[in-house]
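Reminder: ligand-aware prediction takes two inputs, not one.
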Amino acid sequence: MAQTVLPVPPATLGATVGGNPIIKSKYTADPSAMVQKGTVYLYTGHDEAPPKQERYVMHEWLCFSSTDMVNWTEHPVPLRVSDFAWAKDDAWASQVVARNGKFYWYAAVTHGTIHGKAIGVAVADSPTGPFKDARGTALVSPDMTPDDKISWADIDPTVFVDSKGQGYLFWGNTTCYYAKLKPNMTELDGPIQTVSGLQYTEAPWVHEHNGWYYLSYASQFPEKIVYAMSRSLEGPWEYKGILNEVAGNSNTNHQAIIDFKGQSYFIYHNGSINNDGGSFRRSVCIDYLYYNKDGTMKRVVMTSEGVKAAK
Ligand code: FUB
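Here is what comes back for the chain with beta-L-arabinofuranose:
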């Protein structure tokens, strides 16, 4: 007898566990993730735009943790825009990285006194905070990239520390910038440079796998996630194609990539919560990521079922 397969119902705001999106109690966007001692820490922005308001309303970032990628625990709000005294608003995309027993949170905000977006860095002794502004000033302020024609050029920081301990910050909208970081992780070390030759919109994420560096990023608008590969973090980067298609229910898709318990994961957002979900009320999802033998990545299959519990 044929087995009946029941469709996974669309998500609604509520407290269910499992399936995509992974967080159903609130709107979450711009995921970044980090593995520490058998636990995955997921950091997101918090979309708070009321229904029908088609603009970003984001004042704080959120932190969730899991030991199996399915059951997520929410932690108290670890960082708000107001923790950066020099910033005005807009808790846009961010990433937390570990170094020397501390945790550094790089985050895009609107600068309070210099017109445009900027990048701040906060620091904590624990992945769940409390985080404090590490500098008292922006790490990247709009006047440091004076050729930009848009005020939101300095957004979407991603940080990668290589095996020699050299930290790199990548960021940007329209132009993909990068700069070295000093070992203290709170100061740039040398000039701001540009990754050229990419059809680049925003949302860079840098990771390493089997001796290759990968720069994935959002391309065009509505965004699909594409990627390039290189043997060096300073390039040249070779474009390799589409990694994740346009979500369809959200103009943006913002990805993070991690390995956990022997499996690679693609973490992203879409607008799939069916109350009022969309481009300004987004939700984080997780699907599997697979590599080909030559190191290229297979296109991600976005699913409603999501991933199974990792053991
Ligand atoms: O969440 C605000 C902005 O939308 C982010 O900075 C971009 O990456 C896009 O997801």
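Residues 12 and 20 are 11 Å apart (CA to CA). The chain has a mean pLDDT of 95. We will return to this case in the review session.
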